[in-house]
Amino acid sequence: MRKRIRLAAPALVVAAAMAVPAVWAWDEKKTEKRQDEKLKKLGETLSRRQAVTQPSELIRFLNARAAAILERARQSRSDNYVFERLAGAADDLLEAVEEVLEAASESESNPKEKAETARRLERYYFRVQQADYFAARSGEADAAAWVKHARGLYQQARGAYDAGLFKKARRLGGAADSIVDALESLAQASVRVPEPPRLP
After folding, report:
1. Which pLDDT value is given to residue 194?
2. Residue 134: which of 89, 173, 103 has the closest Cα?
3. How far, rounded to the nearest angstrom, does the alpha carbon of residue 124 sit from its chain's CA centroid?
4. CB within 8 A of 67, min separation 6: which ones?
């Protein structure tokens, strides 16, 4: 019985070795298909966001950055790690656009939403505080503008909160959060193995 096992083992090794390239090819095709679907979806979303009439300076900024990053994602498909983070950053920026557009039409005031909104804004505040860190590592030449817009959106959210427009406040705060998310994804794409920061 042992002899049979020893004779069979090399055959199993050869079969496994032959199967590995096939598995890699299958995984590669699966990855390509997933990338295709993601690019298509993001491209369609970008087209809808760009179709907005009379967009504000902020909307134009976010759409332009999303378009540029989406193109970078297309060019980096051979490195799926970078592709996923660039695609994620573009998606975050488009999410920020949607939140800003939705916030513009929010005018309801519901006192029951005050406590939940306060908790959300507190999280967004601390997230916006991280923007400078991610901006410095993102590699974006205009990263300071990203931080400026994130902070501006948070300030608008705080103003909406003070006015009792809690849903509007959450949307604006969410937009600020999404910009920071985009910066974080870009930092991850730029720095594969980050250096842990030191406390001052």
Report:
1. 63
2. 89
3. 16
4. 46, 50
CB 96 within 8 A of CB 60: no
State how far Cα 90 lies from the chain centre: 6
Residue 150 C-alpha from the chain's centroid = 14
Identity of the amino acid at 105: S
Phi, psi dihedrals of residue 33, rounded to the nearest 5°: -65, -45
pLDDT per residue as tens digits for the range 94-106:
999 999 999 999 8
Query: How large is the average pLDDT for residues 162-171?
Result: 96
Tell me: pLDDT of 12 over 50. Answer: no
Tokens standing for residue 172: 């604006």
- Phi and psi angles of residue 45, each rounded to the nearest 5 degrees, phi first: -65, -45
C-alpha distances out from residue 37 to 32, 42, 47, Å? 9, 9, 15
CB 111 within 8 A of CB 164: yes
In angstroms, the Cα distances linking 169 to 23, 129, 130, 151, 172 are 49, 18, 20, 13, 5
pLDDT digits (tens, 9 = 90+) for 116-155: 999 999 999 999 999 999 999 999 999 999 999 999 999 9
